[in-house]
Design goal:
The chain is of the alpha+beta class. 32% of the residues lie in helices and 30% in strands. It has six helices and 21 strands. Helix 1 runs antiparallel to helix 2. The chain is flat and about 150 Å long. 20% of the residues are buried.
Length: 500
């Protein structure tokens, strides 16, 4: 349920070019793509029969996509590429690409400058001031929320180059070095640029199997999984006069460190037997530079083995946004966390949407990309156990289905046997009548039929005779009446003869 509007110029009047109710006002394959790390886009195809066909101008035509149920803007930006083409049948069309408001940052450049002792927020404010001095008022940004902090030299010296635009400068000098994500907020007094560690919050809509989850794909990156850890501590101080191994240029290349051997039965390794059974021996050394006490070192090693960040899980989902039909739930939003439940794949987590592809005409073709979820040894093992448990449950269900199918097969076999018995009984009954008796009965029925036909024919003949007699009687009556009239006439005129 989306409406798409077009306006010429930032403050132009809006014209609807796609309505959720009017089927005649439709774009072809309109898709919004959103990504927490990039500028959002909107693409569609339009034909000459649309009134907007010749009204799409790069940079100056603005497009807005609104969810009519929630009233929220799904996309707001400008036309970038209205590429026109004609196929072999002479049919014209335009494939249109639009870009979001963050693209305004491509419209300005930065000068070569050196900035010292500025926080990320202060540095970003400098970049915004340079951007705002070069662009139209509607493209200008106010500095919004900023919770990204630097560390070490990142807070001391930063440079800008005069061959990069503002977007590329922000990506290079801030996002790629300090992390964080950008978002635009539209407020009554203009546009605000937020620079946050992580955009989004926790949504209330649940993505659940057999409800709104259409498909899900998972991929596990196990490259950081370890089943055996070797914790080592601070460098052991060498007695005076002790010579360490050195390279040819007299630079020390090896020094011993504290280990856990003295408190771990002579072994320097800590093992997770369950993980070893699952993934084999995967050994890794972990350095704790300040620890000298073997007992503390062992404890830290055990914590790392149990809770270390060891694997990432990627999810790709296709889900129906229930907010389009239910105002009681929130719609999917970029950067937000939503609870995903799929018991068949042992998924029961709050997962964050980092990419969205929304097909306005067919929401079932939309997809959500979930960012890498980092899990520790214990959580990974728990997920593995849950997955095994679900597989066992599915196997039991399958076995029950096999048993049920077997029972149905027996019932079908019994039914077939009953039908065969009935068929045989019928054949035996026919045989018990006897061929001679059957022939006699058939002959008698045929004779009876003939007699009936003859009787009907005779009745017909009798009826005809009766009718003929009735007609003859009527004729006689007519003749007699006529004769009497003649006699009366003769007697009245004395025209007759008398015998005297």
């Amino acid at each position: 349920m989306y409406r798409v509007t077009l306006r010429q110029g930032w403050n132009g009047d809006e014209t609807t070019i796609q309505s959720p109710w009017d089927n005649e006002t439709k774009l072809i394959n309109p898709v919004v793509h959103k990504d927490v790390d990039n500028i959002e886009t909107f693409t569609f195809t339009i034909y000459p029969n649309s009134a907007a066909y010749n009204e799409l101008h790069y940079f100056t035509s603005f497009i807005r996509v609104v969810n009519v149920v929630s009233g929220k803007a799904l996309f707001n930006g400008r036309v970038l590429y209205p590429n026109e083409s004609m196929d072999k049948d002479g049919v014209l069309k335009k494939d249109v690409t639009c870009e979001g408001l963050l693209a305004f940052l491509h419209d300005s450049t930065q000068d070569y400058s050196k900035y010292e002792q500025l926080t990320p927020s202060q540095y970003l404010a400098k970049l915004m001031a340079k951007h705002n001095s070069q662009v139209e008022p509607y493209k200008q940004f106010k500095l919004g929320k900023c919770d990204v902090t630097g560390s070490g030299n990142e807070n001391k010296i930063r440079y800008t180059e005069d061959d990069k635009d503002t977007w590329d400068t922000i990506q290079d000098k801030l996002v790629s070095r300090l992390g964080g994500e950008l978002q635009v907020r539209e407020e009554p007094d203009g546009l605000y640029l937020d620079y946050l560690k992580q955009i989004g919050q926790k949504g209330i809509q649940v993505i659940r199997l057999a409800e709104n989850l259409l498909s899900v794909t998972t991929a596990v990156d196990p490259t950081k999984l370890i089943s055996v850890v070797k914790p080592v501590g601070a460098t052991i101080e060498q007695p005076a006069g002790t010579t360490t191994e050195t390279s040819a240029d007299a630079v020390a290349v090896a020094q011993p460190r504290y280990t856990i051997a003295s408190v771990n039965n002579g072994s320097v390794y800590l093992k997770d037997e369950k993980l070893i059974a699952a993934i084999g021996l995967q050994v890794k050394s972990v350095v704790f530079d300040t620890i000298k006490d073997p007992a503390i070192l062992k404890s830290r090693g055990q914590d790392y083995l149990a809770n270390g960040e060891t694997a990432t899980i990627q999810y790709q989902l296709s889900a129906v946004d229930l907010s389009l039909i239910n105002k009681q739930v929130d719609d999917f939003d970029l950067g937000w966390f939503y609870h995903v439940n799929n018991r068949l794949m042992a998924i029961d987590d709050d997962l964050r949407i980092v990419q969205m592809t929304i097909n306005l005409n067919d929401p079932s073709q939309s997809s959500l990309s979930i960012g890498d979820k980092i899990v520790g040894q214990e959580e990974f093992e728990k997920k593995r156990r849950n997955h095994d448990r679900q597989l066992a449950t599915l196997q039991k269900i399958q076995e029950a289905q096999v048993t049920q199918i077997g029972e149905l097969s027996v019932a079908a076999k019994t039914a077939n046997q009953s039908l065969a018995t009935l068929k045989q009984d019928y054949e035996d009954l026919i045989k018990s009548v006897g061929d001679a008796d059957f022939a006699t009965i058939t002959s008698q029925l045929t004779e009876l039929k003939n007699q009936t036909t003859t009787a009907i024919a005779n009745l017909g003949e009798i009826g005809a005779e009766v009718l003929a007699n009735q007609n003859a009687i009527a004729g006689l009556k007519t003749t007699n009446t006529d004769f009497n009239q003649r006699i009366s006439a003769l007697e009245g005129n004395n025209g007759g003869t008398t015998n005297e």
